[in-house]
Amino acid sequence: MASAETPASVPESTDKAAAAADAVDKYNVQAAEALASEALHLPIADAAPMYEQLLAVFPTAAKFWKQYVEALMTVNNDDATKQIFSRCLLSCLHVPLWRCYIRFIRKVNEKKGVEGHEETRKAFDFMLSYVGSDIASGPVWMDYITFLKSLPALNAVEESQRMTAVRKAYQKAIVTPTHHVEQLWRDYENFENSVSRQLAKGLVSEYQPKYNSARAVYKERKKYVDEIDWNMLAVPPTGLSKEESQWMAWKRLLAFEKVNPQRIDTVSANKRIVLTYEQCLMYLYHYPDIWHDYATWHAKSGSMEAAIKVFQRALKALPESELLRYAYAELEESRGAVQAAKKVYESLLTDGTHNASLAHIQYIRFLRRTEGVEAARKYFLDARQSPNCTYHVYVTYAKMALCLDKEPKVAHNVFEAGMKRFMQEPAYILEYADFLSRMNDDKNIRALFERALSSLPAEASAEVWKRFVQFEQTYGDLASVLKVEQRRKEALFGTVEDGGSVLEGSLQDVVSRYTFMDLWPCSSRDLDHLSRQEWLSKNISKKLEKPALPSGPGFVDRGSSGLTSTSNGSADIIHPNTSLMVIYDPRQKPGTTILPSSVGPGVSVPSSNLPNPIVGSAVGSSTSALDDILKVTPPALVAFLANLPTVEGPTPDVDIVLSICLQSNIPAGQMGKSGTMTKQSIPVHAPSVSELSGSSKSRPMPSGSSYKQTGDRQSGKRKGQDDDDSVTVQSQPLPRDVFRIRQIQKARVTSSQTGSTSYGSAFSGDLSGSTG
Question: Is 604 in a helix, a strand, or coil?
């Protein structure tokens, strides 16, 4: 079969509506399906341009190819049909399309006698070599066997040859896990018995285990195949869940085929893997990782030429993929094909759509590896003249000259040459400083910082100042350290409002000076305190009646003082604002609310009901600050807070409350017009506060009796609305949960480490035992 040809150009006489849709979205699946449906009802002369337009965008859409070729077969345009088949067969290993090809071959050769029969047999063999192991290839095998049985036999020799060919076809078909493997096995048994019952017994017993293995593999294979959408069109990945699910389905099928579950020979197993990859690319045509996996698998299997062909196809399918180009060049270089790899790099450099600086860098490294120092140096001199050459190229070559060529003078000259172009690049300044630091050239490091900071704007100099301070802290004396720190503050904060307080020395500066890597001169608590004080000093002029919400240390910006989180995770914990807390007042009336009049869309709560002492302490007998806070609170959270009951009793254990909430089946009740839960919502039984705080009233008896369940707790309805209003959420008994049981067990195990203790669980007698 001839190799695929380039699709014909799309003429301008295509349907206007489809052209407009294609202009809006080239890969519009709905527009493509509509265009294909329209072409189905048009004469081939009018439909051909539409098919060409579709196939130019979806070159692996087997259903469009099949529809196109069937339209040509209908008008008996054999030459055009052959041309279309030569373009699509090898890239679309789709059984319905290949069966259409066989129908065409049989139609063309039906009147050619013996020669036509031979051509048809070769076409069948050609088809089975590509799609014979497909799970849907059962009808193909049946068609082939039927064709072989229909061949004329003029003598006993030809009859024997025909029977042998039919037997071989059956024996290949029954060991292939297809949808029709059981039907093929029954047909094979009938065939052998019709030829010779004595011979059939031995052959059937020989192939019975192979057939059983194929049938078992088919059942497993079918599970993976059923997850695949065979009508999907190949579009670039957009992150949709359907696309991701199809990607995962193909990955699972490929992994299944690679383990060779049927334990067949390597050649046959590799054919199945190739078929699976080719079919996968019909639908994931625009996924570079699939192309790369396919080529890598070929290379690991020892078929380097096949891997190269896959990469070449991948670059035609995804010419904009820079990753695939580098991977292809890497493969060529690994097998010693330096010139082929060089062509790939040159294509990256001549193509303006790719990152030119990265291409320059990788090409310099490639030349250094393959052709030596002089080739890399010569190309660098040419690359630096390019208008799209960035500072990255200078840094790369300078590091190469220092580390690989052992030429620090050349590296220094490269950095100095780059300073003429990239003085305004902080990253380049830092790389140059690192180089000078490695050379122990502290004098030039200071000169570099002074030269760079004199030209850099304040907003771009923060990192350079930070590095300058770190350098002085490491290598300078105390006077130089203090001087540079003061200059840094003046440069970065001298122009901001109330900058005078920032310019003053503080304990944060001491922390910055005496910190090394992950070693800190203070505890995490002290660090949080300092960060909090720093934030307060920045906001000291703001009015207290309008406090900002991010008041915890986790919200403090520590970049200006050089403070960062310690390796201990406690520094990142956001602590509550204890200044707003008050002692619990048992005289607090139940049912009062602390919410203002307007808390969000759809939620209305009167702000006059503020007898809660917490509110009075928080806002100083004023609701303005609380209103400001709740204005930026999400409406859903405000509605949730509005429905919380008043807490009476000891403070509950937060961990236990959270565990019970996570284990409870909380129904999704309907929201009323006011934004609150309707009364029809199923109530959630929660434990009382006294139970969560460890009160002895709710603890199980140590006698081992089980926890008592009440009938009211199991019922889904309440006795009446009066009971609903009078019974609070806190009065419900503690539900039996695994979390509490494990806590009690852990406490008992801890207490029993000093001796032997025999105990019985208050929740279940099965948890009794002895520890010691």
Answer: strand
3-state secondary structure of 94: coil
- Rounded Cα gap, residues 648 and 692, in angstroms: 12
CA distance 347 to 129: 36
Whether residue 178 contacts residue 135, with contact meaning beta carbons closer than 8 Å, is answered with yes
| Residue 771: its H or E element | strand 769-771
Q: Helix 654-663 to helix 738-751 angle, to the nearest 10 degrees?
A: 140
Alpha carbon distances (Å) from 31 to 35, 244, 645, 752: 6, 22, 56, 73
- Give the chain's length: 772
Question: Which band of pLDDT confidence, cut at 50, 70 and 90, is reported for residue 741?
Answer: low
Residue with the two structure tokens 């005078």: 500
Q: How far is CA 438 from the centre of its chain?
A: 39
Q: What letter represents residue 638's amino acid?
A: V
Least confident interval from 211-215, 599-603, 643-647: 599-603
Predicted pLDDT at 723: 45
What is the pLDDT averaged over residues 519-542?
83
Runs of H (alpha helix) within 336-477: 338-350, 356-370, 373-383, 391-403, 408-422, 426-438, 442-453, 462-475
DSSP 8-state assignment for residue 600: E
Mean pLDDT of the chain: 78
| Pairwise CA distance, residues 458 & 702, whole Å | 71
pTM beyond 0.70: no
DSSP 41-71: TS-HHHHHHHHHHHHHH-TT-HHHHHHHHHH
Contacts of 25 (CB under 8 A, 6+ apart): 31
80 pLDDT above the threshold of 90: yes
What fold does the segment set 16-233 form as a domain?
1.25.40
Per-residue pLDDT band for 553 (boundaries 50, 70, 90) equals very low
Answer whether 642's CB lies under 8 Å from 603's CB: yes
Tell me the per-residue pLDDT of 187-228, one tens digit each, with 9 for 90 and over: 999 999 998 888 888 899 999 999 999 999 999 999 999 999
Tokens (6 digits) for 77:
């345009």
Q: For residues 143 and 260, give the distance between their C-alpha atoms in angstroms, rounded to a whole number.
A: 27
Question: Tokens 């014979």 identify what position?
Answer: 132
Range(s) for CATH 1.25.40.10 in the chain?
Answer: 16-233
Q: Output the CA angle 120-126-127, nearest 5 degrees.
A: 90
d(CA 114, CA 591): 98
632: Cα separation from own chain's centroid: 33
List of residues 6+ apart from 223 with CB closer than 8 A:
none
Q: Which residues of 197-231 are buried (b: 16+ CB within 10 A; e: fewer)?
A: eeebeebeeebeeebebbbebbeebeebbeebeee
Contact by Cβ (8 Å): 77, 44: yes
Contact indicator for 595, 559 with CB cutoff of 8 Å: no
Going by C-alpha positions, the residue among 475, 429, 477 that lies closest to residue 454 is 429
Is the Cβ–Cβ distance between 204 and 114 less than 8 Å? no
Q: What are the CA-CA distances from residue 409 to residues 381, 398, 414, 420, 636 (Å)?
A: 16, 10, 9, 18, 65
pLDDT exceeds cutoff 70 at 631: yes
| Cβ neighbours around 689 below 10 Å, total | 19
3-class secondary-structure state, position 308 = helix
Residues 6+ positions from 495 with CB-CB distance below 8 Å = 458
Residue 210 identity (one-letter amino acid): K
